[in-house]
From TrEMBL:
<keyword id="KW-0819">tRNA processing</keyword>
<dbReference type="InterPro" id="IPR002738">
    <property type="entry name" value="RNase_P_p30"/>
</dbReference>
<dbReference type="Pfam" id="PF01876">
    <property type="entry name" value="RNase_P_p30"/>
</dbReference>
<dbReference type="GO" id="GO:0005655">
    <property type="term" value="C:nucleolar ribonuclease P complex"/>
</dbReference>
<comment type="similarity">
    <text>Belongs to the eukaryotic/archaeal RNase P protein component 3 family.</text>
</comment>
<protein>
    <submittedName>
        <fullName>Uncharacterized protein</fullName>
    </submittedName>
</protein>
<dbReference type="GO" id="GO:0008033">
    <property type="term" value="P:tRNA processing"/>
</dbReference>
<dbReference type="GO" id="GO:0003723">
    <property type="term" value="F:RNA binding"/>
</dbReference>
<dbReference type="InterPro" id="IPR016195">
    <property type="entry name" value="Pol/histidinol_Pase-like"/>
</dbReference>
Length: 122
């Protein structure tokens, strides 16, 4: 598992356990925050921000990937806009930029390396 994608726009029936979060981060797993539901409905926005803030607090900003999950072109945002949105989740500016740029690239690179022969890329 490289990426854990949770529906943070709905009320979660559980709390994030710090031991599970730490174990996932130690294995190199990233957590995805999809912000498109917050753009669609006002009611989902509050829940998304609350859940994303709790997740970022537990991970201390490490291993976060912010994605759009856009259904149409009107829900797309620029990378700097997404990074600024990620700061509202409790990430620092550097962590927010990493969540948009380097963290997604690391997830893809790890997936490709796992599928390649003994981790060698050609």
């Amino acid at each position: 598992v490289d990426l854990i994608a949770l529906d943070l726009s709905r009320r979660l029936p559980y709390r994030f356990k710090p031991s599970f979060i730490r174990a996932a981060l130690a294995r190199g797993v990233h957590f995805e925050i999809c912000f498109a539901p917050a753009l669609r409905e006002v009611g989902l926005r509050r829940q998304l921000f609350a859940n994303a803030l709790a997740l970022c607090r537990e991970t201390r900003g490490r291993g976060i990937v912010v994605s759009s999950g856009a259904r149409s072109y009107t829900e797309l945002r620029g990378p700097l806009d997404v990074a600024n949105l990620a700061t509202l989740f409790g990430l620092t500016q550097q962590q927010a930029l990493a969540a948009v740029t380097s963290a997604p690239a690391a997830v893809v690179q790890r997936s490709v390396a796992r599928r390649a022969y003994r981790g060698t890329l050609t």
